[in-house]
Amino acid sequence: MASRCRLPSIALCFLVICFALFLHFSILYRARYFHKRVGVISASSSSSNVSENPFRYDSTSRRRLSSKLFTKRAYTPASDEEWTKAIHDGCQYLRLMRADSQTNAEIFSSSSIPKINKIPAQSPWSNPGDIEKWGWTITQDESKWIWSGFDWEDVRAPLETLGLSTEIKDWDFVQTQHTKAWEVDGVHGPAIDQEYAFPGAKYQNFWLGRDQDASKYTLVLMGMFSPAGMVNEKTPPPDPKPNLPQLAAWSDMVYLQWYWTLSSLWKKPGINLDGSSKIPCPKQIITTSVITDSTRRILDRVRKNLREEPEGVAWPGDSFHPDSQAGRAILGSVHGRSLAWFLIQHKQQFGNKVFTSIHLFRKNEWRKTDKYQPLDYELYFEIGDVDEQDAPGGAEIW
Fold first, then answer.
1. Which pTM does this prediction carry?
2. What is the dihedral of CA 230, 232, 238, 243, to 10 degrees?
3. I want to staple 332 with a disulfide (CB 3.0 to 4.6 A). Which of 18, 29, 86, 214 is the partner?
4. How far is Cα 140 from Cα 175, in angstroms, rounded to an integer?
5. Which DSSP symbol is given to 265?
6. Nearest to 258 by CA among 126, 73, 393, 119
């Protein structure tokens, strides 16, 4: 009799446990769904943060952003050898920026930077029509940046200081993505899309200047994924490796994207669609969330030399003249040289432009833990005309 009385109790307990488990997982699911929805909604607002995303786009990475890159890392300043090389290379890039086109041709032929004498002083890519020719598609689509993990708050402080709009509606998000197979001069190549590696070959940027004069033109770097980097991330590696588009370097891609933005998107007067016009150069470039390891080591060394805390300081951070040791080293890093080529190889369109100041800072909302943060560094480059004292033979070059 006693055992029969216990059976309903056991059954009741079992039902209660099942109900509790159902309730727990139901709440958990809804919480996750709500969190994802909030992430999407907040991304469309300029006053809210985007939720963390393991595939946050690097400004200069040439490879897939695996989750291991986002773990805590040690503070690792560049070695003396790395530091000296970066300073030396930065000096060469400064010299190339400050020289006129004719002098540049002579410098290229005698430069001590490996392979530089094989690079044309003036980029062969000036016509936006080449974008489609080599399999690229260029679009302006505000919805795409929401899923990137980019946090608008990361650049709010510098934009406010510079008197630039912090409203996302005033900026244009432009993406150039390799989506089509191509054939040029009898050579074929496939589309380097997400079938090779996430997120596919693409270059993503924010541009400011749609309804403003040239003094406000600003570039915020967001995503930079080359075709070669995406192919190298393919697992297992493709055999044989595909032909890659010749038009692929960041400096060329961002120039053509900028020309397209001015001529086709903003329809600025006096700029021809065929790429034959001279165009104004952006006044400043902001690079967010620097994660490329070689660049981070250079920036760590900058912090070490300043005898400051490894995590750095918020905007305006530390400011460097390009001719300083730190300024030259930053220009010699992966990030610095990519931006330098943008100015060096487009003198016919921009005129002689040079970086006039460089700021190294960290994001405003920095979460301090017991280890060094991997996404702390940001860079700001101010661009101006080459002054007389900056021309080759004026300022001291390495």
1. 0.77
2. 70
3. 86
4. 6
5. I
6. 126
Q: SS3 for 291? A: coil
Q: Could you report the per-residue pLDDT of 118-151, keeping only the tens digit for each?
A: 788 899 999 999 999 999 999 997 666 554 556 7
Q: Give backbone dihedrals phi and psi of 375, rounded to 5 degrees, phi first.
A: -115, 40
CA distance 348 to 105: 13
Joined together, the tokens standing for residue 183 give: 């054939």
Contact 98, 392 (CB under 8 A): yes
By three-state DSSP, how is residue 6 classified? Answer: helix
Residue with tokens 């769904």: 33
Q: Are 228 and 62 in contact (CB under 8 A)?
A: yes
- The residue type found at 291 is I
Assess contact for 318 and 98: CB atoms under 8 A: no
Spatial strand order in the sheet of 202-208: 136-140, 171-178, 202-208, 218-225, 284-287, 377-385, 353-362, 318-320
Token code pair at residue 370: 């017991």
